[in-house]
Amino acid sequence: MGQFSKWDSPHYMFIAQNGYVNEGDPANFIVFFPLYPLLVRLITFDFAYINLSGLIISNVCSILFVIYLFKLAKLDYSDSVAKKAVLYLSVFPTAYFLSAAYTESLFLAVVIASLYYARNAKWPLAGFLGLLASLTRIAGLLLLPVLVVEYFHQKEWKIKAANLKLLWISLPAFGFLAYLIINYQVTGNFFTFMEIERVHWYQTLDPLGGFAGAVGWLGSNDFSKSLTLGYAQVIFAVFGLFMVLAGYMAKLRPSYVAYLLLTWMLSVSTGFWISVPRYVLTMFPIFMTLALFSQKRIVTIAIMAVSSAALCFFTWLFATGAWAF
Predict the structure, then answer these.
(1) CB of 237 within 8 A of CB of 273?
(2) Percent helix / strand / coil, the chain, rounded to 5
(3) pLDDT for the residue numbered 78
(4) What is the pTM of this model?
């Protein structure tokens, strides 16, 4: 189990066991959002097995997002396209995070489910799931504009057709507000997490600086760092942008294109690119787009071969303790 409980995972487990604190190095863990460690705490009866609890949450959520991704894709496309979308996500080069003690699978589960219920005009449920998303990661806030786009798309962009159900879409903002209140209660400052991100993780709003830094790693003599902090960051950033454009060309729903664009922008927005490949994993409409563009068997085989090989390699890096996003 330890192989899949590395890097950020122990921080989540600390929060699950001890809550947020304001002393020592664990005070920096306030940057991690509360829903995942809360769920881990709820199912943990013996802290000796807390890592197992984290893995259970992640893998149960993986099953849930697979179900909802298939159902969501089926609203617009054939069985074949829906199955390929699920398959491509499952073998994406950073898909090992979906089974690790990380937030990716939980985040994907609530985001995809939120959009599924939005598509079915069940706005209270869509909004509540959006709230859960914003309690999981800051990217959950992106569901607010995405759900607004979906709502007005269903109303054929007629502002006057809006009704009080639109208010449910604001729930993601309340999830983030709850997180800010936690910051204040623990540290006396609503925005402590931003200062820690800047000082401890060197994360500032500087996408060009992040790109330049990644390019700077390309010539490193350390192969592992050159690959994970250089080539992989740049390749996945470019791939993410390409898939935003491809999704638009494939005529995905406006809300899906909005989600792709906003998630990509957030993924590359920082001054230190260290996790772009992991963030791109959460851009789930990518996999619908790939499914639409891989009707020929040879294209499917090529995507599967390249993606699976990269998945095996990065999984090995992660399991051996190397930085792998």
Answers:
(1) yes
(2) 75, 0, 25
(3) 97
(4) 0.96
